[in-house]
Design goal:
The chain has eleven helices and eight strands. It is of the alpha/beta class. α1 crosses α11 and α5 runs parallel beside α6.
Length: 262
């Protein structure tokens, strides 16, 4: 069986997408799995959030243009079991360069094939840019599943409606007929406000069991962790944020059918 690929995406910025990518992958690794996180965002927040430097030539950019392989760019992290392909500023040019390339929507899928067919990883996770540009569409074309972080605010449903529409287009046009919505995770939840509670209730009403049971709280410790280059489970392992992402990792593993490695 090929290694499953999970894209974490929302075209709206500031919804906890990269926070979820970093902390979910770290928690899955902590639970005994081998995880590869690929930072597809030119802002490189997932890269710096794991304490890694942005190195020239270290991103997916050149492999997407058939120059080198993704395997050559895999770097270890301080978390046992978690590896990363970092981002860098050259990804800003990828949208333009890929648009000129032949079969540009399937470049990432082809580049990932050697990693998917090997036995090195239990899961490949893609941190997508906060847009629906060519890199995000490449991620959709290359992935088996989509995870959508959704902020607890009233514009949230508009964002997920757009993602759902694009997902259906990717399937219906044959770009990736097997892409499925793994789930929606509610982020930045403030239990003291009626707004957060109402939004979660409304999203659950619309999407039912596609919404994860786990809700990610809005906490200062979660916001601080990236500036120290650490996921929350190493920055503050006994915090509410760490507990939430550990439970989310268990939910995600169950939905994907992942078993913990020995």
């Amino acid at each position: 069986m090929p290694v499953p690929v999970l894209a974490v995406a929302n075209q709206k910025g500031g919804v906890g997408k990269t926070t979820t990518s970093v902390n979910l992958s770290a928690c899955l690794a902590k639970q005994g799995r081998s995880v590869l996180l690929i930072d597809l965002d030119a802002q490189a927040n997932a890269t710096s959030g794991l304490g890694l430097e942005k190195l020239e030539g270290g991103s997916v950019y050149r492999p997407l243009l058939s120059d080198g392989t993704l395997a050559e760019r895999v770097k270890p992290t301080a978390i046992q079991g978690l590896s990363v392909i970092a981002s860098e500023l050259d990804l800003c040019g990828a949208e333009v360069e890929l648009a000129r390339a032949e079969d540009y929507l399937n470049r990432l899928r082809r580049a990932l094939e050697p990693l998917r067919s090997g036995n090195s990883y239990d899961l490949i996770l893609l941190d997508c840019p906060p847009s629906l540009g060519i890199l995000t569409l490449n991620a959709f074309a290359a992935s088996d599943h989509l995870l959508v972080p959704l902020q607890c605010e009233y514009f949230a449903l508009e964002g997920v409606a757009m993602i759902t529409r694009i997902l259906n287009q990717v399937r219906d046009t044959g770009i990736n007929p097997h892409l499925s919505l793994l789930g929606i995770v509610m982020t930045m939840f403030d239990g003291r406000t009626r707004l957060s509670q109402n939004v979660v209730g409304e999203v659950r009403q619309h999407f039912g069991d596609k919404v994860f049971e786990t809700v990610i709280p809005r906490t200062t410790r979660l916001a601080e962790a990236p500036s120290f280059g650490k996921p929350i489970i190493t920055y503050d392992p006994y915090s509410a944020g760490a507990a939430a992402y550990e439970v989310l990792a268990t939910e995600v593993a169950q939905r994907l059918g992942l078993k913990a490695s020995s």
